[in-house]
């Protein structure tokens, strides 16, 4: 997975609202910290080589936002709408994305680390070379997605997560935690799980009772 091409120490500290002053709604080579940008509306904005730390974007609508080579640390995207957004070489560390809508988005070389994504809508997406690490994806929907390259889930909470109409071939869930996930028998061939998870899935799909 490729990392963002960004040198944080060289970035001037600016305001997120500078993006509205640009005719093309572009924000490039900025460092933004400790700002409140809740309930914003931005259509087809472009953000490149920028660093965000402790910025609140709650309940904002960023339709078709394009993000490249950018890093977000401790930011809050709760209940944001980011439908059909494009993320290329981006990182989200210890962020809050509770109830976020990312339907139709494209993830290419994206890292989500320690991020709360409960109740997230992650549907009809194209996901390539992306890692979810130590994320809370409980009750989220990951349906009708096309996965390419290495799509990884490491040490994530995925209880009650739904994976309908998404091929999970080569996806490894063995380090994740769940009591039940919604999957389709025809689409889990080649998926990797541990023994306990295999018993849980067999019970859900086939009605088998496994004794230990």
From TrEMBL:
User: What is the name of the protein in this document?
Assistant: Uncharacterized protein
- Which InterPro entries does UniProt cross-reference here? 5peptide_repeat, PA_immunity-related
Q: Which organism is it from?
A: Pediococcus pentosaceus
Q: Where are the transmembrane segments?
A: none
